[in-house]
């Protein structure tokens, strides 16, 4: 395997050369077009004072998550270009994702090229370090799955971050030694539950890693003054996670206050939509009613598309999951569950939310799922930040639908 070794060496020196070239070119560009560069995301990356950036972008919002450590190397707030131009950086540093093309100047074309080249090289390097994922065997479930304890003591994110170096920024993970069978987006509707966030990610990462799945955790926070709309936030989480990472095939909608306590409860999707949180401690591990679909549930891309996602109409607590159960029924799905001995959860304590007084009325209305859901979803992304242990999506969903 000497040839592999020398190829690796050649590649490394190529990267070094490119790096040098990149820095030189950058200096030249900076010298010539300094003022143009001011507006470029690269500038943000190179020079940003993170606290300043964050506070200035967050000033207007009340319920923004404030994690202890934000690393600008990996987390850059969204530029507010029409609210939708999302720029994010991940650990490879040179990767840039922009959903709408910004005004293109020659400088930025040059920069994009340079960054692309550099990125091509770095990804090359990482894939040669890691075994080519396509050649890795499919992951098998480990033999030692079973009941686990939930640690529900208060903790802070800064300490937890150190515990999971294998998790990539944005709360992403894929098994290093095998090809995952499932690519799962964990979508967590969020508002005012800062104290649960650390406990949740601290529990979920080891739980999911153990199951050898590829996953990302998306915390979807509602901005604005209207009552909490869990279902609409889940639609937003689905849309945005698809946009950020088109390869997710399975979507698990997850309340932040539920912690699974048996690793045999595999976080994957099945041919039927699956209700995962069947046995919750506060309901004495009994299923309250047969069509319950709230708490934690899993659906594939195809299932979600077929039922047009969740309804957007449920403002305030309750009703939206029963609405989904109706949608499933109309589309000839049935709700699948694991045995009650496996689908076990513990709930974190919190103040009871005020139920939506109109929830029964909404449920009993004759309704067309075709017109209300993903098809008429309307929202504005305010900010997307890749933190170490999760991707934070802040969205305003007050408008229209
Ligand atoms: C940011 O990340 C770099 C490299 O990962 C690390 O050396 C540095 O300590 C981090 N800064 C903070 C504030 O966490
Ligand atoms: C960085 O983002 C790009 C594009 O989203 C992705 O292909 C790549 O795998 C990411 N790398 C890491 C280390 O997360
Ligand atoms: C980087 O790789 C992509 C896809 O492999 C290719 O289309 C692109 O031309 C490459 N860019 C450079 C500068 O080599
Ligand atoms: C790559 O795979 C081979 C055989 O499958 C194994 O011997 C080797 O240790 C792996 N390398 C890494 C870096 O995982
Ligand atoms: C719970 O997690 C915290 C923070 O990681 C840790 O300090 C504490 O020892 C843990 N408690 C138990 C019972 O594992
Ligand atoms: C992957 O393989 C390496 C080397 O065999 C091992 O040390 C490591 O624990 C494995 N990781 C996982 C998650 O199984
Ligand atoms: C998405 O999946 C395809 C096919 O499985 C693969 O070729 C591609 O590299 C994946 N993209 C990302 C960003 O993981």
Automatic annotation (TrEMBL):
Which pathway does this polypeptide act in? Answer: Protein modification; protein glycosylation
Q: Name one GO molecular function term.
A: galactosyltransferase activity
Give, as one word, the top-level EC class. Answer: transferase
Q: Where is the Galactosyltransferase N-terminal domain?
A: 142-270
One annotated GO biological process: glycosphingolipid biosynthetic process
Which Pfam families does the UniProt entry name for this protein? Glyco_transf_7C (PF02709), Glyco_transf_7N (PF13733)
By its UniProt entry, which CDD domains does this protein fall under?
b4GalT
Instruction: Return the Gene3D superfamilies for the record.
Output: Spore Coat Polysaccharide Biosynthesis Protein SpsA, Chain A (3.90.550.10)
Entry EC no(s): 2.4.1.-
Keywords annotated in UniProt = Glycoprotein, Glycosyltransferase, Manganese, Membrane, Metal-binding, Signal, Signal-anchor, Transferase, Transmembrane, Transmembrane helix
**Residues of the Galactosyltransferase C-terminal domain:** 274-351
Task: Give the main localization category.
Answer: membrane
Provide the protein's localization.
Membrane
Q: How does it sit in the membrane?
A: Single-pass type II membrane protein
Q: Name one GO cellular component term.
A: Golgi apparatus
Q: What cofactor is this protein dependent on? A: Mn(2+)
Signal peptide span: 1-27
Q: What does this protein do?
A: Catalyzes the transfer of galactose onto proteins or lipids.
Family of the protein in this entry:
Belongs to the glycosyltransferase 7 family.
Record protein name field? Beta-1,4-N-acetylgalactosaminyltransferase
What are the leading ranks of the lineage? Eukaryota, Metazoa, Ecdysozoa, Arthropoda, Hexapoda
Name the gene: LOC111353756
């Amino acid at each position: 395997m000497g040839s592999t070794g020398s190829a690796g060496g050649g590649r490394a020196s190529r990267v070094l050369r490119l790096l040098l070239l990149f820095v030189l070119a950058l200096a030249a560009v900076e010298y010539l077009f300094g003022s143009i560069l001011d507006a470029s995301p690269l500038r943000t990356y190179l020079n940003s004072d993170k606290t300043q950036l964050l506070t200035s972008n967050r000033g207007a919002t009340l319920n923004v998550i404030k994690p202890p450590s934000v690393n600008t190397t990996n987390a850059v707030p969204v530029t507010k270009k029409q609210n939708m131009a999302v720029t994010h950086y991940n650990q490879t540093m040179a990767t840039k994702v922009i959903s709408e093309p910004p005004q293109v100047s020659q400088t930025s074309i040059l920069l994009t090229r340079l960054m692309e080249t550099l990125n091509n090289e770095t990804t090359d390097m990482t894939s040669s370090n890691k075994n080519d994922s396509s050649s890795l065997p499919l992951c098998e479930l480990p033999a030692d799955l079973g009941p686990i304890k939930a640690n529900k003591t208060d903790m802070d994110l800064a300490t937890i971050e150190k515990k999971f170096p294998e998790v990539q920024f944005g709360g992403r993970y894929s098994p290093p030694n095998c090809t995952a069978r499932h690519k799962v987006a964990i979508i967590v509707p969020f508002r005012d539950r800062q104290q649960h966030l650390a406990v949740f990610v601290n529990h979920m990462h080891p739980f999911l890693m153990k199951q050898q799945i590829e996953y990302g955790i998306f915390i979807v926070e509602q901005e604005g003054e209207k009552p909490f709309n869990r279902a609409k936030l889940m639609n937003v989480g689905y849309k945005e996670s698809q946009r950020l990472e088109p390869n997710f095939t399975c979507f698990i909608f997850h309340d932040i206050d539920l912690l699974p306590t048996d690793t045999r409860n595999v976080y994957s999707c099945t041919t039927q939509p699956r209700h995962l949180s069947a046995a919750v401690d506060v309901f004495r591990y009994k299923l309250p009613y047969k069509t319950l679909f709230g708490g934690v549930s899993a659906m594939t891309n195809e299932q979600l598309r077929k039922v047009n996602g969740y309804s957007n109409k449920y403002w305030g607590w309750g009703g939206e999951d029963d609405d989904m159960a109706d949608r499933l029924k109309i589309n000839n799905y049935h709700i699948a569950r694991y045995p009650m001995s496996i689908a076990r959860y513990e709930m974190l304590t919190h103040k009871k939310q005020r139920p939506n007084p109109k929830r029964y009325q909404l449920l009993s209305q004759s309704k067309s799922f075709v017109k209300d859901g993903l098809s008429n979803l309307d929202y504005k992304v305010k900010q997307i930040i890749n933190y170490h242990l999760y991707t934070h999506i802040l969205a305003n969903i007050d408008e229209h639908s």
